[in-house]
Design a protein that fits this description.
The protein is α+β, with helices and mostly antiparallel strands and 545 residues long. It has 19 helices and 18 strands.
Length: 545
Amino acid sequence: MKMQKLSGKMLINMLIGAANNLDQHKQMVDALNVFPVPDGDTGTNMSLTVMATARELHALGDGELSAVGSVLASASLRGARGNSGVILSQLFRGFAKTFSGLKEADAKLVAKALKAGVDTAYKAVKTPTEGTILTVARECAMKAITLSEHEDDILKVFEGALATAKETLDKTPDMLPVLKQAGVVDAGGQGLICILEGAFSALVAGQDVQLVTPSSGTMTPTINQAIQEQTILFPYCTEFIILKKEAKNCEKPLQVFLDKRGDSTVIIDDGEIVKVHIHTSTPGAVITEALKYGALMNIKIDNMQVQNDSLVMASQATQADIVTPTKEYGFVAVAAGEGLRNIFMNDLVVDQVIEGGQTMNPSTDDILKAVQKVPAKNVFVLPNNKNIIPAAEQVISLADRNVFVIPTRTIPQGISAMIGFDFECDAVANIKQMTSAIKHVQTGQVTYAVRKTSVAGKEIAEGDILGLLEGKIAVVVDNAEAALLQLIEKMVNDSSAMISVYYGNQTSLEQAQSVLVTLELKYPDLDVEIHDGGQPIYFYICAVE
């Protein structure tokens, strides 16, 4: 089978195939996380991003390549989760924009689109690193460009590019020492391979692909806020296969007839059968004409006007969640744990707290919806996690009000930023004050190792208790309380004034109180506070200021 053109329907099937395949392998990708802590969410974030995109494309059903590309770019942007999801959305965005105004694309244009996706993604990353998803995507695209110079079969170009992507992934440990030390390939690059493999399989199959139900977690459908109510000139999407009576080619006469009956016409004569697709206002006439050439099978007629009306209603329902600003300043924070949620909302007057964190990064759309619910002209967003910052920053261009993202990388930084806010100052002054405040707090976290590994010269066994100082493994012991005390000892210096500890849902009140007594005895000149954070994953989160 040879494929010389890529249609909108084919692209939809490719993305659905990609989403299905990555969903099946996301836990494997998560396990490639360099650090052995239970926050390996690259596969999950990429899966959630591509699954949200595939859902909107599945709802679209069909369309010219340009229209499908537009939905692909928009849906992936709003569904992007975490750093890996944002990079993936940029790959999709550049890829899709290449098809603007086109009904279909040949092999050279598909290769050009892959390269455009890479260029867009590289521009979105301030300091690109070799040995990551970007490297894998770049080498894949360059191979596609080279192959398309002398090969017009999209399948062969895609197959060759995929092979190069896999070879590049295998080389990532040689590009990044941290990968070689951990004995893994790049997680983002592996996720991209899963996406490409799923897309290629769908392309080879040449059939409609059904979107699977995600294997774990819940998915919130994203609604395209740009959906407009419209009257569709040719509302019936009509598809069928003709089992030809005679061997002669019927493509040309059928094309002449169909061109007068609608648009988005696709006719593929494969010898014994003819595959037909058209958007028309008279499906009955199309079916009657087709019967002249043979028996029909797999007839499908969808009313796109009804589909559009349903999407408009869903979009309007989403718009109802947007509130009108009634105050000057408002706040959105990301946190996991009932205790931390209460601290942000009750003690620090944050308007909306999004449930999320290291193992579950909220999407751009999740953050946007939270921002739109805040009745303020100026909304400050506290991501409280480095992987959530990119998704939060994309909200700035999507919201209907001023959004300021304070680059908080930890919960203690988010709390310090809020304490540094002054309602008497303007937004610019507060940005400076909040950004300054987060520079004066050190963060420690106590968690456990999910696998055996070696990091920075430290031998780690599965189940070991790890103390992270500013995200780097600083302590390896067998007891959470011992890890916390050793961490704090490394954090305290002559200028320290306060120690704050937030205990998680795996830590008892008695254990926390024992820690409080120990810290007060050891650091009599410092203020020591301990709070019930209720956070998962981390036995303790601590801050020294």
